[in-house]
Design a protein that fits this description.
Chain lengths: 193, 160
C-alpha cells in the first residue's frame, strides 16, 4: 500500500513537472512572437504610417478644395466617403501597431531592457492617451468626415512618434541578426504547420 | 562585399534606365504603367532586354523595381488635380475614346496590378481610392460641358 502511494506521488510529481516545462516553453515562444510583432509594428509605424508625407497626403486640404470647385455634390460625397475610409484605415492601423508595442512593453521589454520606472510610467500614460485619442479620432472621422479633427491627427502623430522613439530605445537589445533569427524561426514554424 | 558590389550595379543600371529609357516617358502615371508592364505577372520579376545586355538579370530586375517604386511614390504624392490631368494626358496618348477608357478602367481597375509588389496596403489603397475619384471626375466631365469642370488645364498642371 505504501509502495502504491509512493508511486502515485512520484507519478503526480512527474506529470506536474512536465506540465510546468510545457508551460515555460510555450511562454518563451510567445515572448519571441511578441518581440517580433513589436519590431514589425515599429517599422510599420516609422516607415509607412507616421512619415509626414503619408498623413499630410491623406488629410490634404488641396484635394478637398479642388473637388468643391467642381460644384458637383455627388462627386464631393464620393470624395469624402473615399477619404474617410482611408483615414479610418490609417488610424486603425496605427492603433493596432500601438497595441503590439504595448504588449511588448508589458511583457518582454521588462526582462530585457533597462527602462527606468519613470520612463515606464510615462510610457504607460502615453499608451493610454494614444489609444484613447485614436478611438476619439475614429469616432470623429466616422461621424464628421476626414477633415473633422486635424489637431487630433497631429496629436496622434506626435504621441505615436514619442512612443516609437522610446520603444526603439527599449528594443536596443535586439540586433538585426536576432530579429532575423526570430523571423526565421516563426517562418519555419508556419511552414511546419 | 558582394552585396555592396551588387547594390552599386543596381544603382548604375537604374541610372542608365533613367538616362536612356525613362526620359521619353514624362509622367509618373505613364512610368508606373510602363514599368509594371516590364514585370512578369507569374513571377514578379522585371525584364528589360536593353539593360540585360549590359547587366546581370538580377541587377536589371532590382533596378526596374527601384524605378517602379519611385514612380509609385511620385504618383501617390501627386494631388488629385494633377492625377486627373495625368489621366487625361494618358487617355490622349492611348488614342482610345475617353468614354470607353473610363468605363473599362472603372470595371477592370487595371491600376490594381500596376503597383510594386512590396508597397504597403494603406498607400496602395490610397492610390486606388484616388484613381476611383479621378475616374468619377473624368466621367462627370464627359457627361457635362467642359466649362462646368474644375478649372484645371492638364498642360498647366503637368508643367508644374
Amino acid at each position: 500500500m505504501i509502495q502504491l502511494v509512493l508511486y502515485l506521488v512520484l507519478g503526480a510529481a512527474f506529470l506536474a513537472s512536465l506540465y510546468a516545462f510545457a508551460r515555460r516553453s510555450a511562454s518563451a515562444e510567445g515572448g519571441a512572437q511578441i518581440i517580433l510583432r513589436a519590431r514589425q509594428a515599429l517599422s510599420a509605424l516609422q516607415a509607412d504610417l507616421l512619415p509626414p508625407q503619408v498623413f499630410e497626403r491623406i488629410f490634404a486640404n488641396g484635394d478637398y478644395r479642388y473637388i468643391i470647385s467642381a460644384g458637383d455634390p455627388a462627386l464631393t460625397a464620393m470624395f469624402l466617403s473615399e477619404r474617410r475610409k482611408i483615414a479610418l484605415s490609417w488610424v486603425e492601423q496605427i492603433r493596432r501597431q500601438i497595441v503590439s508595442l504595448r504588449e511588448f512593453h508589458l511583457g518582454s521589454a521588462r526582462l530585457h531592457s533597462q527602462l527606468s520606472p519613470r520612463v515606464e510610467a510615462r510610457l504607460a500614460f502615453e499608451f493610454f492617451t494614444l489609444l484613447c485619442v485614436c478611438r476619439f479620432l475614429q469616432l470623429a472621422l466616422y461621424l464628421r468626415g476626414p477633415y473633422a479633427a486635424p489637431r487630433m491627427v497631429g496629436r496622434v502623430v506626435a504621441v505615436a512618434s514619442r512612443v516609437c522613439a522610446t520603444s526603439e530605445e527599449a528594443m536596443g537589445f535586439l540586433s538585426a541578426v536576432k530579429v532575423d533569427r526570430l523571423a526565421g524561426k516563426s517562418a519555419h514554424k508556419m511552414t511546419a504547420l | 562585399m558582394n552585396n555592396v558590389l551588387k547594390r552599386t550595379d543596381v544603382l548604375q543600371a537604374a541610372d542608365d534606365l533613367r538616362r536612356h529609357t525613362l526620359p521619353s516617358i514624362a509622367l509618373p502615371l505613364d512610368l508606373l504603367i510602363y514599368l509594371a508592364s516590364t514585370r512578369d505577372y507569374n513571377t514578379g520579376f522585371y525584364y528589360h532586354d536593353g539593360l540585360a545586355s549590359r547587366f546581370a538579370q538580377e541587377v536589371v530586375c532590382e533596378a526596374l523595381a527601384d524605378c517602379h517604386r519611385e514612380a509609385f511614390q511620385e504618383l501617390v504624392g501627386a494631388s488629385l488635380e494633377n492625377l486627373v490631368a495625368q489621366m487625361e494626358a494618358y487617355i490622349a496618348s492611348t488614342q482610345t475614346s475617353p468614354h470607353d477608357f473610363v468605363v473599362a478602367w472603372k470595371k477592370l481597375e487595371p491600376y490594381r496590378v500596376a503597383v510594386p509588389v512590396d508597397s504597403d496596403t494603406l498607400t496602395s489603397d490610397f492610390l486606388f481610392s484616388n484613381f476611383r475619384i479621378a475616374l468619377a471626375i473624368l466621367q462627370a466631365r464627359l457627361n457635362t460641358p467642359r466649362t462646368a469642370a474644375p478649372a484645371s488645364s492638364p498642360h498647366r498642371l503637368l508643367a508644374q
